[in-house]
C-alpha cells in the first residue's frame, strides 16, 4: 500500500499517515457558514481537501468524508435580520449556491454533510456531560467551558495560557469565571427568531460545540483527519479539542490536523473594505472555468500562502489548455503505466506543484508526438480533479497549432493585441490560416 505523509499541525511535523483502521479512513473538514456566497478563499480549502479525499480513495478501500454545514450562527442571524429573509430559507439558498460553486470546481460531495440545526440534541447532550464532569458551568443562561481545567489547552496553536490575550478572537464577558473561557450555549436575545429549547432555556449552541458534536455523531470518539483553513486553528479547532477530549474518557478525537494556508488578492488580505472580495460565482460569470480556478489553487503547496492575481490566473488557463489540447490530440487508450514519480509527489504532503509539473511534462511529450502518454495524463488529471471539458480540435490540425490558437484567444481576451497578432503570424508561418468566428475561430491549411 502506498504510504502518505501529511504535516500534522498538532506536532508541527510531517508524519507518515497511519489510520486507526486501515480498512476505513475517517476525515472531518469544517464546512461553510451559509450566510453568503463562497469566496475564493473558502474554495481553496474545499479543493485542497477534495484532492486529499481523492488520493485517500485511490489508496484505501473505504473513506468516510464528513463536511458540516453551519446553518445557525451570529452572521446568519444578522444577514437574515438585515434582509428580512427567513433564516431557514436563507441558509437553504446559500447551501444550494455552495454546492453549485463546488460542483463547478468538480469537487466531490462528501459522504456525510450534517447540518448544525439537525444536531442540536447531540450538542445539548455533550454540554450536559461537560457540566457533569466539571469542565463547564452555567452563568445567567449561558454555558461556558472552563479552559483552565484542560491542561493541554493551547497545544494545537502552540500558545501558552498565560500569553493569551482577551480581545478580537476571545469574547469579553463579565459572566465568565475566567476571561479565556468560551461559550457552549448562549441564551436567546429579545426578538431573536432562531432559538432552540434546552435545559438552560431558549437559546442556541456556540460555534465550537457544533463541530465536536457532529463529528462524534458520525465518526465516533476517534477519527483520522480533521481539516480546515489555518484561520480555524485558534480558537475554533483548539476549542474543539478541549471540549471533545473532556466530554468523555473514551473520546480521542482527531489524530492528524491538516490546515491549508491563507489566500491573498494582489498581495493584500481579501476584504470587502478593500473592494477585493471575490466570490467563486463572480469568476465563473466572467468566464473563468472551474478547471482553471482549480489549477490555480494547486500551483502552491496547500500549507503555503497563495496570491490571486491576473498572471496566476492566465498561467492556470494556459496549463489547462495544454492538458486539453494534448488529450484531445491523442487516442483514448485505457491502459497506462503508472508513474511512481507522480504518486511520490502527491503522497508527500500533497505536493501538488510538483505533481502539476510532472503532468505538464507528460502533456509536452504528447504534443511532440508521443501519444502513448495520453492515458497516464488522463488518469492523473482525473486524480487531481480536472474535467477538461472543451471542444475537440479541428480535424487534421496538429496539436501545436491548436495550442497556439488557444493562446491567441487568451491574448485577445486580455486585449493584448500585439501578442495576438504575433501568434497569428507564427501560425501562418507554420503553414496554417486562422479566421475569427462568432464562436471562436477556424483553422485551415494554407
Automatic annotation (TrEMBL):
Assigned EC number: 6.1.1.16
The tRNA synthetases class I catalytic domain, residue ranges: 17-317
Major localisation: cytoplasm
Reactions that this protein is recorded to catalyse: tRNA(Cys) + L-cysteine + ATP = L-cysteinyl-tRNA(Cys) + AMP + diphosphate
InterPro entries assigned: Cys-tRNA-ligase (IPR015803), Cys-tRNA/MSH_ligase (IPR024909), Rossmann-like_a/b/a_fold (IPR014729), tRNA-synt_1_cat_dom (IPR032678), tRNAsynth_Ia_anticodon-bd (IPR009080)
Localization (cell): Cytoplasm
Position of sequence motif 'KMSKS' region: 269-273
Domain of life of the organism encoding this protein: Bacteria
Motif ('HIGH' region): 32-42
Cofactor note: Binds 1 zinc ion per subunit.
Pfam families with a match to the protein in the record: tRNA-synt_1e
Cofactor: Zn(2+)
Quaternary assembly: Monomer.
UniProt family annotation: Belongs to the class-I aminoacyl-tRNA synthetase family.
Protein name: Cysteine--tRNA ligase
Source organism per UniProt: Candidatus Bandiella euplotis
Amino acid at each position: 500500500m502506498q504510504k502518505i505523509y501529511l504535516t500534522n499541525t498538532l506536532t508541527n511535523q510531517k508524519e507518515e499517515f497511519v489510520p486507526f483502521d486501515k480498512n476505513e479512513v475517517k476525515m472531518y473538514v469544517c464546512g461553510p457558514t451559509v450566510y453568503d456566497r463562497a469566496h475564493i478563499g473558502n474554495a481553496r480549502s474545499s479543493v485542497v481537501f477534495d484532492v486529499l479525499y481523492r488520493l485517500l480513495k485511490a489508496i484505501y478501500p473505504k473513506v468516510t468524508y464528513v463536511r458540516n454545514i453551519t446553518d445557525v450562527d451570529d452572521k446568519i442571524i444578522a444577514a437574515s435580520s438585515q434582509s428580512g429573509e427567513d433564516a431557514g430559507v436563507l441558509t437553504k439558498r446559500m447551501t444550494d449556491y455552495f454546492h453549485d460553486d463546488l460542483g463547478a470546481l468538480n469537487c466531490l460531495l462528501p459522504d456525510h454533510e450534517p447540518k448544525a440545526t439537525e444536531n442540536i440534541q447531540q450538542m445539548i447532550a455533550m454540554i450536559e456531560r461537560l457540566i457533569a464532569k466539571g469542565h463547564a458551568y452555567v452563568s445567567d443562561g449561558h454555558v461556558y467551558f472552563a479552559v483552565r481545567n484542560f491542561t493541554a489547552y493551547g497545544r494545537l496553536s502552540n500558545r501558552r495560557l498565560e500569553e493569551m490575550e482577551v480581545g478580537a478572537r476571545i469574547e469579553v464577558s463579565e459572566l465568565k469565571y475566567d476571561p479565556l473561557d468560551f461559550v457552549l450555549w448562549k441564551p436567546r436575545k429579545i426578538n431573536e427568531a432562531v432559538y432552540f429549547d434546552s435545559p438552560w432555556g431558549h437559546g442556541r449552541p456556540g460555534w465550537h460545540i457544533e463541530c465536536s458534536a457532529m463529528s462524534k455523531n458520525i465518526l465516533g470518539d476517534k477519527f483520522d483527519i480533521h481539516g480546515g483553513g489555518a484561520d480555524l486553528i485558534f480558537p475554533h479547532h483548539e476549542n474543539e479539542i478541549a471540549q471533545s477530549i473532556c466530554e468523555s474518557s473514551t473520546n480521542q478525537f482527531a489524530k492528524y490536523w491538516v490546515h491549508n494556508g491563507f489566500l491573498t488578492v494582489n498581495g493584500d488580505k481579501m476584504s470587502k473594505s478593500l473592494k477585493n472580495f471575490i466570490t467563486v460565482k463572480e469568476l465563473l460569470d466572467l468566464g473563468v472555468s472551474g478547471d482553471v480556478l482549480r489549477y490555480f489553487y494547486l500551483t502552491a503547496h496547500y500549507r503555503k500562502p497563495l496570491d490571486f492575481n491576473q498572471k496566476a490566473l492566465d498561467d492556470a488557463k494556459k496549463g489547462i489548455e495544454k492538458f486539453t489540447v494534448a488529450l484531445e490530440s491523442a487516442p483514448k487508450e485505457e491502459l497506462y503505466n503508472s508513474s511512481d514519480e507522480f504518486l511520490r509527489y502527491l503522497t508527500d504532503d500533497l505536493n501538488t506543484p510538483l505533481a502539476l509539473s510532472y503532468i505538464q511534462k507528460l502533456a509536452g511529450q504528447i504534443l511532440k508526438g508521443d501519444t502513448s502518454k495520453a492515458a497516464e495524463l488522463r488518469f492523473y488529471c482525473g486524480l487531481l480533479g480536472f474535467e477538461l471539458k472543451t471542444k475537440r480540435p479541428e480535424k487534421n490540425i496538429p496539436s501545436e497549432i491548436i495550442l497556439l490558437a488557444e493562446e491567441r484567444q487568451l491574448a485577445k481576451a486580455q486585449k493584448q493585441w500585439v501578442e495576438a497578432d504575433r501568434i497569428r503570424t507564427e501560425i501562418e508561418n507554420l503553414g496554417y490560416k486562422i479566421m475569427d468566428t462568432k464562436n471562436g475561430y477556424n483553422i485551415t491549411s494554407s
